[in-house]
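Listing S7. Sequence submitted for prediction.
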Amino acid sequence: MKWLLNMLCLVCLGLSGAALAWSDEQDVRWRALNEELRCLVCQNQSIAESNAPLAEDLRKQAREMIEQGKSDDEIRRYMTDRYGDFVLYRPPFKATTWLLWLGPGLMLLVGLLLVWRLRRPAPVVTRVSKEQHTQLAEKLKALNDD
């Protein structure tokens, strides 16, 4: 029994030592990655904010990859290879994401053109009296007769 208790103490000490091996720099990197990766279930939350099981798995995966010595770019590449650019809050500018980047500017431009078009003064239409109308009709008839 004493032997089992000693082994249990050694295991606990070993686990606490593993937790101490996680440096502050690794923690900062892990937290930064968690903030820039989107939860695919919630879609409007980062994996740091989300309580979804998938977000938990992504946090664990990121932590394991940091422990393995992977760089942030390698982790991002792994996540985008697996889940697509949607997992990133700042996807790269490329053929499939150009609308994401340029869409707001295009919408602003269309809105400004619409406002400009609607605010232009309408053409001035003058009313012609019946008297003027008959005079103009007579003049046109005289021109057509010639």
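Caption to Listing S7: primary sequence and predicted structure tokens for the chain studied. The two ends are 129 Å apart (CA to CA). The chain has six helices and no strands.
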